[in-house]
Design brief:
heterodimer; A: 221 residues; alpha/beta; 10 strands; 34% helix; 29% strand; B: 833 residues; alpha+beta; 6-stranded mixed beta barrel; 14% strand
């Protein structure tokens, strides 16, 4: 499903080159779930961005569904993202100009995988029934993150990448959202990579890796 | 307060682009407005100086045949006890080729209350009257003479013909490019020992004109200031338009700066800064920025005025014969007024910001929600205000319909302004409605659906710029169509009026002999003699009754030959063209449109015209167009004019037979009658000069139009650049969801281009309405004649292309920045959202 092999990434900063990832390798099988933990600035989000083809490594290979992401031109990477991946961000990133239902179906429509029944089911499961015509800013934080999860799962992706999906939520809401996320991932049988610094988030997942100064280490929970 | 102000200003340190846009808007608005005002102020100063001299303050006596008076005639009149004073007028050329008007006067016989006689000069009267005499001139004439102001007094510059002017004395109150000296000195320079151009007398000093002379009363002479009033009103209207469009940029930049500083303002309030203090600090910030922008704008306005003044002076000279100095002469109130207008505009544009800051809710968190409902309220308010503005436009239109043609210049401008305002106010609600409909229709096309929905979100930030674009486009189309229509009409009219291929100008006493000689020449097919004279329009008899008028009027005589009558344009006749011409040949008159409009006359009405020894009542057979003439004119058959008003010939059109040798005819004419080589002028040359003057007349209109459109483009660019960062934040998640950057960039351009196209489409009917207002109301009120309404599909296509082009040009930079942004930069935008 997803394989990173000896990936290196350095950013140029005013203070000089900043090495963010060093020789990072990992493998994620279909249907598997993996937590990626680490301190702030340890390179977690960079790794997730590289896995999604949002950025390119300096060295190493990233293989997604058998394709080397680093070798794909931008349109092909974009296509891969909309058809194979689901992305959930800490800041939700809903489109303010679209209603709840249009936001939920946006990626599925872009990928031409739109399924009205599945979207309806997701709305129900996400507890957004009756809110379909509202705009994102008319929802609570928890509702917005549930909507973001729904949008990522609507095209039935092979891999769901989530960057601190509960980082902006209170503890109770975070628990509810995480439970819902895992349950839906289980139903859709997609692989899951979550970037988090929360042990509660990492605990229910199949595996956990820790990033430290750009290097990946196995972690025991 | 200093701390609050420096905290507020620190925003611009982080966002210098916003500061540049704000200052740019102020600068442009202030520059265009103050530039126009500088031109107007200089022109008014020139008129005031001309008024203060002789032209409109004294009654004038001239020979009826147009020939110069002689000293003997003057002495005879003085001996008969008439209080007249001689005046000799001519032209001299400086070494750089500038033409100056030379006026010779006799101050001893000028009435004592004449401003010139009372003028404060440093020299005594005897220095003026006796050799080496004096030349009095305004300082702005020194440039042409190549003399510095400090060296001017007492200088004796040499003219192009080698003659020396008497010592110079500066008199700032004199009109531009005019030299005044004793009549003896003027006679020496003009080599005119015996001639006098005219005699002047104190108003009312003469009860009637002596025999052989015409008396023109000062009260009936229109001053250049009166004649050119409408021209300056047009300029002021264009300047005001540019000022309003410039303020759109200011409003955009201020709105954005407030939007981005809402957090800062709330923090300041939370930290204990009172609402009043905050508003005061914002006001101080506005004044500070306003002063910088306004001062830069006024300085540029003066530069712009210097650039445009020669064309304006040429226009005013050719249209109205009004002399305008080429040097800017700006009174103190120009500077204060310019500053006040710029600052006033800034406060007007910034009043919304101050209002919002005053009502700032410290705990307001649901910004987007508040904004969405706020914008809906704003759209409703715009619709209502638009309806109000269009009601005003309707009311003005109804009022104008009740007025006689030619009245309501200010109301006409008011109607156009109300139309522009109504359309601008209705634009955002209309665009919102269209976008809502399109969003609904595009539900199955996810990207287009997003693009439409996203455009609705962008609309509040773009609406001001789109309103500015609409106004600029509509004005451009309106004025462009008016000028284009005018050009077509004018060229057609020239073709109709100048039917003869050649025109002969000779001294009036020679025409009888020339006519007899030409009648014998086989190559001359037709001779179209013209005559000119003047009379007083005493009264008019219309079906409503008789009324006295008492206006001086120009009489123009033409020969209704077979080449001329089929082409001569007529706007209205009593029955038809042929009966009108038949009546004309028998003594009926035609009047020009200006006279018909001014006095509300129609074919069939009768005019009573008087001149010394003559009083005629004549029937109007038709009304004809007379473009470019500021005054009323009566047209008569040349023979009738000679018989009834003893009018001298003024020119003769010659229609030649096929294969005629023009050069041989010219040579024979010159030899036989001792005429100059330019006596026989080619019609094409006359048309070329007339067309050149026409084109020059509209140089400033075109320049201001182009500048207004450029300002609107800047307003759009300012809005787009100002929201470029937030746009990237909105586009980044879509890119993350798998929409390629190229597609997003194309969509971004298509969104803007489409909105601008809709704005351009709305600008077309509005532009047509403006053209109609200009030709049917403004032109009639300002000049006395109405132009036909011409529409140019090509101009409309250009308007649409300009709208889209301006939008794409303005959108190109932000789009390019998005397109070229590195993936990491986009991710940073995304993370920062």
């Amino acid at each position: 499903m997803l394989e990173l092999h000896q990936v290196h990434k350095t950013y140029a900063t005013p203070q000089g080159p900043l090495r963010v990832l060093e020789d990072a390798s990992l493998r994620l099988a279909a249907g598997e779930s993996l937590a990626l933990m680490g301190e702030s600035g340890s390179g977690k989000s960079t790794l997730l961005h590289l896995a999604a083809g949002l950025d390119l490594p300096d060295q190493g290979t990233i293989t997604l569904e058998g394709q080397n992401v680093a070798l794909l031109p931008e349109p092909a990477r974009a296509r891969l993202r909309r058809e194979q991946l689901g992305l959930v961000f800490q800041q939700f990133h809903l489109v303010p100009s679209l209603t709840v239902i249009d936001n939920l179906r946006l990626q599925a429509r872009l990928a031409k995988h739109d399924d009205a029944d599945w979207a309806g089911y997701l709305i129900e499961r996400l507890g957004l029934t009756g809110l379909e015509k509202r705009y994102p800013e008319q929802l609570s934080g928890g509702q917005q993150q549930r909507l973001a999860i729904g949008r990522a799962l609507a095209p039935r992706p092979a891999l769901l990448l989530a960057d601190e999906p509960t980082g902006n939520l209170d503890e109770t809401t975070a628990g509810e959202v995480l439970e819902l996320l895992l349950s839906l991932v289980h139903e859709t049988q997609c692989a899951l990579l979550i970037v988090t610094h929360s042990l509660q988030v990492a605990a229910p997942l199949d595996r956990c890796l820790r990033l430290r100064h750009g290097r990946l280490l196995d972690a025991a929970l | 307060m200093t701390q609050v102000l420096s905290t507020l200003l620190s925003h611009y340190q982080r966002h210098p682009g916003q500061l540049i846009m704000l200052l740019l808007g102020l600068w442009v608005a202030s520059a265009l407005w103050s530039g126009i005002q500088a031109i107007n102020a200089t022109a008014r100063d020139s008129y005031a100086r001309a008024d203060a001299l002789f032209d409109t303050q004294l009654d004038q006596l001239e020979r009826r045949d147009g020939a110069p008076l002689t000293r003997a005639e003057y002495h005879a009149l003085r001996q008969a006890g008439l209080p007249v004073s001689p005046m000799l007028e001519g032209e001299v050329f400086t070494q750089d080729g500038t033409r100056l008007t030379l006026i010779g006067i006799d101050p001893l016989t000028l009435s004592s209350d004449n401003p010139f006689a009372q003028a404060d000069t440093s020299a005594s009267l005897s220095d003026f009257l006796t050799p080496p005499w004096q030349t009095r001139l305004a300082p702005d004439a020194l440039v042409a003479l190549g003399i510095e102001r400090e060296n001017a007094s007492g200088a004796t510059p040499t003219l192009a013909d080698g003659k020396q002017l008497p010592p110079l004395i500066l008199s700032p109150a004199l009109p531009p490019d005019t030299l005044i000296m004793d009549i003896a000195a003027a006679a020496r320079l003009l080599e005119s020992s015996n001639e006098i151009t005219r005699l002047v007398a104190a108003p009312g000093a003469l009860s009637e004109a002596p025999a052989g002379l015409t008396l023109t009363r000062a009260t009936t002479l229109a001053s250049p200031g009166q004649l050119t009033e409408s021209f300056h009103l047009n300029l002021t209207a264009l300047g005001l338009l540019a000022w309003v469009v410039g303020l759109f940029i200011v409003q955009s930049a201020l709105g954005l700066a407030l939007e981005q500083r809402l957090g800062m303002l709330r923090t300041l309030r939370v930290l204990g800064v009172s609402g009043r203090r905050l508003v005061l600090a914002l006001s101080l910030e506005l004044i500070l920025l306003g002063l910088i922008g306004a001062l830069a704008g006024i300085a540029s306005g003066v530069w712009l005025a210097r650039l445009l003044l020669p064309d304006v002076a040429a226009t005013l000279g050719s249209l109205y014969g009004a002399g305008v100095g080429q040097e800017l002469n700006l009174p103190w109130h120009y500077w204060v007024g310019g500053l006040a207008v710029s600052l006033g505009g800034l406060l007007l544009a910034g009043s919304g910001v101050l209002w919002r800051a005053a009502r700032l809710n410290m705990l307001e968190l649901g910004q987007m929600q508040a904004w969405r409902s706020g914008y809906r309220r704003q759209l409703t308010l715009m619709s209502i205000s638009g309806a109000l503005a269009s009601s005003i436009a309707l009311a003005l239109y109804a009022w104008l319909r009740l007025q006689s043609p030619g009245d309501g210049l200010v109301a006409g401008f008011g109607l156009i302004a109300a139309l522009l305002l109504a359309s601008a106010l209705w634009l955002p609600p209309l665009l919102a409605l269209i976008l809502k409909g399109l969003t609904h229709l595009a539900r199955r096309r996810p990207l287009i659906h997003w693009a439409m929905a996203d455009m609705q979100l962008q609309l509040p930030k773009l609406s001001l710029a789109m309103m500015a674009l609409l106004i600029a486009l509509a004005t451009n189309l309106g004025v462009g169509s008016m000028v284009g229509g005018f050009r077509l009409t004018f060229l057609e009219w020239l073709d109709q009026r100048l039917v003869a291929p050649f025109y002969l100008n000779a001294p009036s006493e020679q025409y009888a002999d020339i006519d007899a000689w030409l009648a014998e020449r086989p190559e001359v097919a037709e001779r179209l003699l013209t005559r000119r004279s003047e009379a007083t329009l005493q009264a008019a008899s219309t079906p409503e009754g008789s009324r006295s008028i008492g206006t001086p009027i120009e009489l123009y005589g033409i020969t209704p030959g077979k080449s001329l009558t089929p082409h001569w344009p007529l706007l209205a006749t009593q029955q038809n063209r042929s009966s009108a011409w038949a009546a004309f040949s028998k003594g009926a008159i035609f009047i020009n449109e200006q006279l018909a409009t001014a006095e509300n006359l129609s074919p069939g009405d009768q005019l009573n015209l008087s001149a010394p020894g003559t009083n005629e009542t004549l029937t109007i057979a038709a009304i004809y167009p007379d473009y470019g003439n500021p005054s009323g004119q009566v047209l008569m058959a040349s023979l009738q004019l000679a018989a009834r008003f003893n009018a001298p010939p003024s020119s003769m059109g010659l229609v030649l037979s096929d294969g005629a040798d023009v050069d041989a005819l010219r040579a024979a004419l010159s030899k036989r009658f001792d005429l100059g080589s330019d006596a026989l002028r080619d019609q094409r040359e006359i048309k070329r000069i007339a067309t050149e003057i026409f084109e020059r007349t509209f140089t400033i209109t075109r320049a201001l139009n182009a500048l207004t459109l450029a300002v609107a483009a800047l307003a759009l660019l300012a809005s787009l650049l100002a929201q470029a960062r937030s746009r990237r934040q909105q586009l980044a998640p879509l890119w993350a969801l798998g929409v390629p950057r190229a597609q997003l960039a194309q969509l971004n351009l298509a969104q803007l281009g489409g909105t601008a196209l809709a704005t351009g489409l709305l600008a077309i009917p509005l532009g047509i309405a403006i053209t109609w207002g200009l030709v049917a109301i403004i032109n009639v009120a300002a000049f006395g004649w109405r132009l036909p309404l011409y529409l140019f599909p090509w101009e409309m296509a250009v308007t649409l292309a300009t709208a889209v082009g301006v939008a794409l040009l303005a959108a190109a930079l932000p789009t390019l920045r998005f397109w070229r942004a590195s993936p990491r930069a986009l991710l940073a935008e995304e993370a920062n959202q």
